[in-house]
Every structure is written in C-alpha cells, then in structure tokens.
Amino acid sequence: MTYAVKRDFIGYADAPPDPHWPGSARLAVNFVVNYEEGSEPSFAHGDGYTETGLTEAHGGGQVKSGRDLAAEGMFEYGSRVGFWRLHRLFQDRGLPLTIFGCALALEANPQAAAAIRAAGYDICSHGWRWVKHFELSEAEEREHIARAVTSLETTLGEKPAGWYCRYGPSVNTRRLVVEHGGFLYDSDYYGEELPFWLTVEGKPHLVVPYSLVNNDGKYVGWTGTSGQWFSYIRDAFDMLYAEGSKTPKMMSVGLHMRLIGHPARAMGLQRLLDYMMQRKDVWITRRVDIARHWMATHPYPGKGLNE
C-alpha cells in the first residue's frame, strides 16, 4: 500500500525514550544554517519576481517591474558577508554546524562551499531551489530531489545525509525521498523534540524533527534586538536543560545568513554559543550525528510502526 501521511497526536506522550546522548548529556543541541541565498525566486532565474522572504524588504516597492533590488542586495549580503561571520563564530569555538543547503545557492558560491567542506559541516538538502514543494507535481518533485542530490554531491563532494523542504513538504515528499534513497533522515516535521521512526513504503525511515520556534526568523516578527532573541532562545535552552535531568531531548536552532549574519544580531548568537558552552553536559552536535546516534541506540523497531 502506498505510504500516506497520517496525523499523530500522541507520539511519545508522557514516556519519551531516553536518548542516551554521548557523555550522558542532558540535551543535544543542533545549530542549522539555512543556506538559501542564490536559489530564491528571482529575475536571474526567470521567475519574473524578486523573493523578499526573511529580509527587511517586504515587497512594498518597485511593484511595476516586480524586481526588488533592495531584497536582492539583502540576499547577497547573506552569501557575501553573513555566511562568513557565522562561520567564524562557530570555527573560533570549535563548534559543529549543520547546513540546510539549497543546491543552486551553494553552486553560486564555491568559496563558501569549500569552507563548508573544510570545516566538516554536515549537509542536509534544502532542495534544489527555493520552491514550494507542495505546488509541484509528483514528477516535478521527484526531479527536484534528484537534481538537488546531484548538485550537492558535485559542489561539496558528498551526498546530503538528510532532507528538509524550504517550505512545508508535499504529501509526496517523504515517500519520494525514500524512493530516491541514500538519505539517513528527513527533518520535515515540527511536532516532536526527539527523533522517531516511520515505515515508508515498507522501509524504515528516521525523522529528526526541526523547529521554526527556536529560529532567527523572529527577527522579521516581534524580536527587535539581539538581547531579546538571546533571552528567548536561552529560555528554551534552560527549560530543556532542566527537563533533561529526567527526560533528555534535542533542540534545533535555525539560522539564516541574511538575518542573524548582521553584526547586531550576530551578537545574540555569540552570547548564546558562549552561554551553552558553559554547560558541560550539553552535546552541541551535527544533525547527522544525532541521526546516527539514534539509529545505533534506538534501532528501527520493526515493520508495522505507524502503519
């Protein structure tokens, strides 16, 4: 029977499994940089309009042409400047990082791709381009997944370990990711704080959930200063850390180069990294390492799960 997405309102409930994180850590923390700049809708790619998402340009100008040069510059800032600032923050502290990479974006910046390879950051495919997968036909989506994998392997020298759509997935995405093969996990889910297994088309498939809450996207919402953002994410960390004495969890922190890569905002990230590093029993790690650890510690329980 063809795999179909089913809603689950129960999950682990009040008895989550002990992840047994390395070093008996209370909390596994994964920082993600969404590398999107250069793959977004634009005139250069023949889309006929400029993407303004997660920038300070909100589509209010240059309506007649549809081209927003302010937004274009903000995207380019992320690639030209923001990436390198975030890269330095993590490299200076010897901290790992996961890249949610849009394939076309990384093609546009060979220097950043080389730095990612040299640093050993893991790659989760963020799609071939910044598109809405739920608007693609099944055939189109299948092609996008294949093109993303081929491109990322060419640019970075290895296939992506995971998959995460730029927008929400389609009802076909997970099935097509499994059909393509070669992925350890997908992160197209926001309803959990621990990885979990599914059976997809008769095959075991791991989901490593992500978060839009612990995310610098708040900077284009209600957050004004780096202090506000730091306080907000710190509170999430402190809650999970306290709970971790009994029920260890994982925490994802999403970053965007054109947002938190700006100096004033990056100060909040710097404070957060230094704050977390003061805790000895926290595992700051890559997403692929969380996936591999879960596979080894909590192997697939067998056919029939979630079917």
Estimate what percentage of residues fall within beta strands.
5-15%
CATH superfamily: Glycoside hydrolase/deacetylase
The major pleated sheet works out as: 9 strands, mixed
CATH top-level class? Alpha Beta
Radius of gyration: 19 Å
Strand runs, count: 9
Mean pLDDT: 93
Query: What percentage of residues falls in helices of 4 or more residues?
Result: 25-40%
Identify the overall geometry. Answer: globular
Low-confidence stretches: none
CATH topology, by name, is TIM Barrel
Counted by DSSP, the helix tally is 8
Domains (count): 1
What structural class do you assign from the helix and strand content?
Answer: alpha/beta
| Series of secondary-structure elements, N-terminal to C-terminal | EHEHHEHEHEEEHEHEH
CATH architecture: Alpha-Beta Barrel
State the distance separating the first and last CA atoms: 10 Å
